[in-house]
């Protein structure tokens, strides 16, 4: 059996799509209800006083709410439609021995358990915060109160369901790259190294990269939208806090959203970091090779790892890594200080 046949012998997953039939139906119906609710409740605020900076700022927030909700509905509709077909990353991410590695199977099981606990905790926190907010707000209209209830209790469920799926695929991508890295390390420790083993490692890495690209292509614009939405609402809430706003709900809501963003970002960045982790071992391996064909194979492998930026991207413009996160926080802080200075000077 050659290297490619060994890789293709078994599949890592047996699922046919990212989301099941009932999940797709839930996402579509819930998001449609949320969009109608947002447009209805925000349209009541178009009679704001525009003679002050804060009035214009509030109107901009209303327009932002409607724009982001409409964009989210379109993105989720695209996810629902694309998920009907077999998830393409399942064709690329072959078993490559993960099903035989007890340590990696334990890693996946453990990470999935942590994932379920974390998302259950975030769901409880968001619902508890929303209930507390619902009890303390003054809404006299029965219609507005009903719409507000729908918004508070459906938005978190939709977001957490999709983010949970993103974290799940990240866990399996981590396992694939961990396997490749361990095989490269075994080549470094076990001498002599043969060409077939090195070729198999490079082939496994290629499949892991193709799987990552397939996942990134599917979730790309939702991940981009998530970071844009988080940045917009965090900036708005922090600027209002600078103005003396004592709305504890929005402060606590921002803290919870920040923790969720950090948790998701750790998984997104980890895929990029693990895809480059084998570089040091490949460099050390090159010193021990005597045959020209093996040196050539190793140089191709190094070039693939070095010049292929693997991972999730922001609208296919920037790879989400540590530099991207630092730049995003710097830009957000600059906008916050500029807006606060403009509104409250």
Automatic annotation (TrEMBL):
Keyword hit for Cytoplasm: no
Keywords in alphabetical order: Membrane, Transmembrane, Transmembrane helix
Regions crossing the membrane: 25-48, 54-81, 113-135, 147-163, 218-243, 249-275, 296-318, 324-344
Protein name: Gustatory receptor
The species this protein was found in: Tetranychus urticae (Two-spotted spider mite)
Organism taxonomic ancestry: Eukaryota, Metazoa, Ecdysozoa, Arthropoda, Chelicerata
